[in-house]
Amino acid sequence: MENKEVLNVNVVTPNGLIYDHHATIVVAKTVSGELGVLPKHAPIIAPLAIDEVRIRRTDADTHVDWIAVNGGILEVRDNQVTIIADSAERERDIDVSRAERARQRAEQRIQEAKAQQDSDQLRRAEVALHRAMNRIKVSKHT
């Protein structure tokens, strides 16, 4: 087996380390657009959008881990990719029924905020809906 460079990938939340593996590529959506990270990538720090992170592991060319992140920061330095997020869940850990209930609550809150013309409440409800939809989308990759 040839010795090829790999990325060390960690995803950390206030609850601790939720992901720690080697990878050949990491793809994440930043607030500026999609970012693909390969070994030897230049150092970078980028704010993440609420979206999925795709990580192709080294143990199989087809093995991809999917993680739902609710914003945060991605840092790349010396083949180390660190994602620090308020919350993040691997596809296998997502409780789909809980995410569906969160989606329904957010949709209800959006309707209430529109009826009350409360722009702050509307924005918070839209973010909650985006988070719930992201979790539902990522859960479908299992």
UniProtKB/TrEMBL annotation:
The keyword Iron-sulfur does not apply. Keywords: ATP synthesis, Cell membrane, CF(1), Coiled coil, Hydrogen ion transport, Ion transport, Membrane, Transport. SUPFAM superfamilies: Epsilon subunit of F1F0-ATP synthase C-terminal domain, Epsilon subunit of F1F0-ATP synthase N-terminal domain. It is found in: Cell membrane. Its main location: membrane. GO terms for cellular component: plasma membrane; proton-transporting ATP synthase complex. Residues 93-140 form the ATP synthase epsilon subunit C-terminal domain. Gene3D superfamilies: ATP synthase delta/epsilon subunit, C-terminal domain, F0F1 ATP synthase delta/epsilon subunit, N-terminal. CDD domains: F1-ATPase_delta (cd12152). Residues 96-123 form a coiled coil. InterPro entries: ATP_F1_dsu/esu_C_sf, ATP_synth_F1_dsu/esu, ATP_synth_F1_dsu/esu_N, ATP_synth_F1_esu_C, ATPsynth_dsu/esu_N. It is a peripheral membrane protein. GO terms for molecular function: ATP binding; proton-transporting ATP synthase activity, rotational mechanism. It comes from the Bacteria. Produces ATP from ADP in the presence of a proton gradient across the membrane. Belongs to the ATPase epsilon chain family. F-type ATPases have 2 components, CF(1) - the catalytic core - and CF(0) - the membrane proton channel. CF(1) has five subunits: alpha(3), beta(3), gamma(1), delta(1), epsilon(1). CF(0) has three main subunits: a, b and c. PANTHER family: ATP SYNTHASE DELTA/EPSILON CHAIN, ATP SYNTHASE EPSILON CHAIN, CHLOROPLASTIC. This is ATP synthase epsilon chain. It comes from Enterococcus pallens ATCC BAA-351. The gene is atpC.
